[in-house]
Amino acid sequence: MSKKRNKQIHIKWGEFFNIYKGLKLPWLIFGIMIFFGFAYGWAVVKQAGLEQGFMSGGVLTTDVIVQYLIISLASMLIMFMQQYVRDGLCVEHINREMRKKLWGNLIRMPIKYYDKETPEALVSRITRDCEKANSLIVEIVGWIAQLATLVMALSALFGYSNKLLMLTGLAIIAVVIYGLAISKVSYWANYMMQTYMSPFTMYLAQRLKAFELIKASGTEDEEFERGQRVINDMYKADIASRIELGVIATYVNLTSIANTVIVYIGGSIMMAKGILDAGVLVAYYSLASTAMNEIMMYFQAYVNIKGSQGGLAKVVRIIDAESEDVDSGEHIDIPDDDIAFEGVDFAYPDGANVLNNVSFTIPKGKTTAIVGSNGEGKTTVLKLLERYYDPGEGRVMFGGRNANEFSKREWRQMFGYTSQDSQILSGTVRDNITYGLKRYVSEEELDSIAEKANLKELIHSLPDGYDTFIDDGGSNFSSGELQRLNIARTIAKNPEYMLLDESTCNLDPDTEIEVQGALEKMMKGRTIVIIAHSYNAIKGADNVIVLEGGTVTCQGTQKEVEERNGFFREFVDSSVI
């Protein structure tokens, strides 16, 4: 495991508190928790007073017994309600609101953030990691609620024995010191769980979906070894978690043992000397146990908060990340025009340059093909066109103006982007074709779109037609059918500019020809940028750009480029890159 991966991230208190900014907190529930805290404190003190009377030889009347039973039952009911309100209503309310906030931040982040995290890891942030966010608020409100019980119990103790109270004070100091020490263990353990849990679940999810690939590739032994490594990493996290549970258990036992030893040994000595009677000793023990438990709960809460700091390290990074501003910028009032790259350099974060001083023009109303070997920056050009990234150097120009001057939201509305990977969402065929549209799409228009994407016959053959539900990952459709759904979505958007990134690569030859013909009909009068693996997909292109080594080595008409560029000649001759 690399040192970089194991490096522990320390979250400052200010960053920790910042995750609650703008959160809708359950103030009514907080009030109910505090009320129960006062009610429980009153019941404990009242119960201790009655126990003292019993043990001191007081008269046991029916009224006293009934009163004691009622208070005992009431204290148990209050404890139950405290637990339900705190760990049920309050915790789940904050979990829900935190997930909403985290999802809002994720969905508005620049796409460069997603290059650093896998989808599986981001799922873990929302489903599991953010659950620790409730600790700080819940524990602070719990402190206030417990304060009433603690104050009432400590106040009552002053009326019994000063010597026992002094010994109890020493025990409290020991409990506090130990509680501070184990908070660091909790931070470490929770950070370990977050560090190794996401890679573990991600690895399993990916491999379980790719069993056929593993079998076909004969990589069972390699995957076995990789699985062993991630399981060993998860083992480290589990051990850290068990260590945390162990030290917390000793903390609880220490609190109980300290109180029992001090009260009963010290109290027995005092009883032998005639300083105390049994009633006072029992009442004092009851109140001291309550006070010690409340103090233990305070430090248990602190331990939980420190653990949450460790577990929320990566969640805090998402909360603090800058959201992508898609609305600022000028309104696009320029009619369709040429798009030009002027001296563009670009590198992904922590990587070498992908594009180097790239300059070319995409003429309006024409089809431009970008060709080159894998890894030459073709798809990067499309990402810059969509303004998912900004150039490191140089400019992307539109109508003689820098594209960065315009609103990203409006800019992206001009483009239809069909990538080489099928982007299919859970839902119906209709949902996927019309995704992102702000208008109603009639059945007639859907039929027209489906026909152009060579899908109409298939969709009408389905029992539920456009309302057919697409299974997880599109498993009830072929890869070619899923790709045609992507193309149908682009056609439905009716964009001024169409970006086709290997959009026919998953189709069989016959279907590719049919869909290519449909796309060519849609291309008329539009500005098209194509990346393709087959010359058949670009043979109608008006303009060709050749990328080699992240640099434009040739551009012009097909005839011009074929005459001047050996790579393009080979591309045409082989018909496949």
UniProtKB/TrEMBL annotation:
Pfam families: ABC_membrane (PF00664), ABC_tran (PF00005)
One Gene Ontology CC term in the entry: plasma membrane
Cellular location(s): Cell membrane
Boundaries of every ABC transporter domain copy: 339-574
Protein topology in the membrane: Multi-pass membrane protein
Transmembrane regions: 25-45, 65-85, 136-158, 164-183
InterPro entries associated with the record: AAA+_ATPase, ABC1_TM_dom, ABC1_TM_sf, ABC_transporter-like_ATP-bd, ABC_transporter-like_CS, P-loop_NTPase, Type_1_exporter
Molecular function GO terms recorded: ABC-type transporter activity; ATP binding; ATP hydrolysis activity; ATPase-coupled lipid transmembrane transporter activity; cysteine-type peptidase activity
Main localisation: membrane
Keywords recorded for this protein, A-Z: ATP-binding, Cell membrane, Hydrolase, Membrane, Nucleotide-binding, Protease, Thiol protease, Transmembrane, Transmembrane helix, Transport
This protein's record includes keyword ATP-binding: yes
Record carries keyword Thylakoid: no
Location of the ABC transmembrane type-1 domain: 28-307
PROSITE patterns xref list: ABC_TM1F, ABC_TRANSPORTER_1, ABC_TRANSPORTER_2
Regions annotated as coiled coil: none
Name of the protein in question: ATP-binding cassette subfamily B protein AbcA/BmrA
Provenance organism: Aminicella lysinilytica
